[in-house]
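User: Some background: our group keeps a shared notebook of sequences we're curious about, and every so often someone picks one and asks for a predicted structure to add to the entry. Today it's my turn. The entry only has the sequence so far, pasted here. Could you supply the structure so I can complete it?
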Amino acid sequence: MDAVRQLFFDAVARSHAFVDASAAPAWEAVLATLATLAAGLDPILYGELFGRPGWMWLGFIGIVVLLLAFDLGVLHRNSREIEVDESLVLSAAYIGVALLFGFWVWHSLGDEAGMAYLTGFLVEKSLAMDNVFVIAMILGYFAIPRQYHHFVLFWGILGVIVLRAIMIGLGAALITEFQWILYLFGAFLVATGVKMLLVADKEHSLDGNALLGFLRRRLRVTEQLHGERFFVRLPDPATGKPLLWITPLFLALVLIEFADLVFAVDSVPAIFAITQDPFIVYTSNIFAVLGLRALYFALAAMIHRFRYLKYALALVLVFIGGKIFLVNIIGKIPPAFSLSVTLTLLVGGVLFSLWRTGKEAPQPAPRAG
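Assistant: Of course. Here's the predicted structure to add to the notebook entry:
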């Protein structure tokens, strides 16, 4: 990056040779303005934020913004049902971009950072798959038509990006200040993994959900959907005065955000147990959830085929949490070994699920709307 900056300033210096003498004063003023702007940008581009220069964070944010703009503004400008074939292609594209970014991390930041990124991405992507099951249940509960699913999930992803940034920032600050927090994370992951093993077959349900009940009691909720609108103005049944109401689509969005918050309680400690580099933590986390919408449409039709993946996820959490304690006994575990174990467990979980459910009687996939 320093070489690129030097080339820019060299080009500016040589530009005098191509400027007419009569225009030299104006050109000098332009160069002075550029120099002032460059000096002002220096602290932003090259100053460190959570241990990495600002241009790395800005570059990552730029990639995320471009992906979201292209996805919603170009590919899915109008509400429509997304077919499985299209979602598989889009999901593969998101994974491809994430892996290309991982290659850049590996090349620029070293082998250890690259393997930590890939391990974190695998874990977060797998946890995101588990999240798909809950999202499908929420959208089915509210009978949201499939052509609106992408719209709800888009806004859900934006909320996830902000929530994860806050949680990861807090986690990084806590670990920097209190190293023993890592042991708390490790114990929590082991306990969560064991709990997942014990209740993996438990069905999710919104019946009696406390948050949903609270929202219905405190807010005016319409009985029917109003297209893609989260809020509408309707007359009060008693007075006829126009009032602001929320729609079931907004309730679904709130519950999806809350579900991700619950999942983040598992995923954020898991990625911090792999690496404490906030840049690797956040980028692997966000790239994993960015493709969640595409992944949802690919998996929603065959959720039952991945019934046993939760057992593999549980073992991954136990392994990652246990690593924190093993460091003091056997020393640092090589990142390549962690990546291999994680990949083996997750691939094994997927293959076993496909094999086992393929022998069972087919079950109808939930389809909202």
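Suggested note for the entry: Confidence is low (pLDDT under 50) at residues 364-369. The CA atoms of residues 162 and 298 lie 25 Å apart.
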